[in-house]
Amino acid sequence: MVSLCSSKIIMLGKHMINLSSIRLTAPAVLPLWTTQVRCMSRVKRRHTVPPFWLPKATRVMYPEELTSENEAFVSEVIADQYSSPLKTDPWERGVWTPKSLRCGVIARKLGIYPLWTKDGTRHLTTLLQVSKEYFNMFSDAGILPKKKISKFIITPDAKLAPGTPLYASHFKPGHYVDVAGITIDRGFQGVMKRWGFHGMPASHGVTKSHRRGGNIGSGGEKARVLPGQKMPGHMGRERRILKALKIWRINTHYNVMWVQGPAVPGATGSYVFIYDTIIPTRRHTTENPPPFPTFFQDEQEIEEELYDEMLHVFSQPSISFAEK
Q1: What is the spatial distance between Cα 320 and Cα 324, in angstroms, rounded to a whole number?
Q2: Helix (H) and strand (E) counts in the chain
Q3: What is the reported pTM?
Q4: Phi, psi (rounded to 5 degrees) for 169
Q5: How far, CA to CA in Å, does 190 sit from each of 194, 214, 235, 278?
Q6: CA distance 182 to 50
Q7: CA 310, 312, 317, 322 torsion-angle sign
Q8: What is the pLDDT of residues 112-164, one digit of tens each?
Q9: Which of 43, 133, 211, 296 has the highest Cβ tally under 10 A?
Q10: Distance, CA of 5 to CA of 19 (rounded, Å)
Q11: What does the alpha-carbon distance between residue 180 and residue 153 come to, in Å, rounded to a whole number?
């Protein structure tokens, strides 16, 4: 028990308090932890801390220099421990309808590359390498853990058996897809870089206000700063979705696809999520349906290079001569 008796007098604002009249009888026990409550902003859209459920990387990034005998032994143990459900009877495959929603794929952004159509028009495209990710959790699928996982909304007729590999041939050249990803993190930026403000004049009376945002008040009866006012702050690391991007070319050997435009979100090497577009005028039709529920590349033969019909193929001659 703690008791406090003192004849001291303190001033708290305009009030005078005599400490001798205060007697504390609370137990002197300090809490072992405290609960912190944060008031999140209404317009905050990012989280700088990874979620608690995100698995941490445990594999080593350096070569372990295993011998051929050790590699054979590890492969044998993996084959015995992980039995894929694909070795059993396959699931019944549905039939595509205009209301069907297929599973998407996870891809890595490789860079930007130009392509030319047959009329000479130059198009900038983004190379996306589809990673061989799998559908469902690892233990149920009987496969080794993967580096990146995601989930997609599908219809019951587009379900895939656990462990089904997805390749770049999941799509076709000429189809349109939506690409979702996280933009590059730019950190804290001013209004000129973050929002494209032109700034103040360089001279003629401007003093230390060349890159400032200017007045942010509303005046009048509002007398406050409206929510969403363009001000300096954190730029980047936002989830962005580019819709209706055309697929120009697909390489089935390296699982690389060329999609329209250089503005795919994310830096080189980052992951993006690709799925069939939701734009009504760019969706699949009965005349040109997609592989459903996916293209089983292990069961069917396919060419290594697939091009859109409007794309110029440099391996083919562009000029033909005919004898008179």
Answers
A1: 13
A2: 3, 11
A3: 0.69
A4: -70, 0
A5: 6, 12, 9, 35
A6: 13
A7: positive
A8: 999 999 888 999 999 999 875 444 456 555 666 667 777 888 888 888 887 78
A9: 133
A10: 7
A11: 14
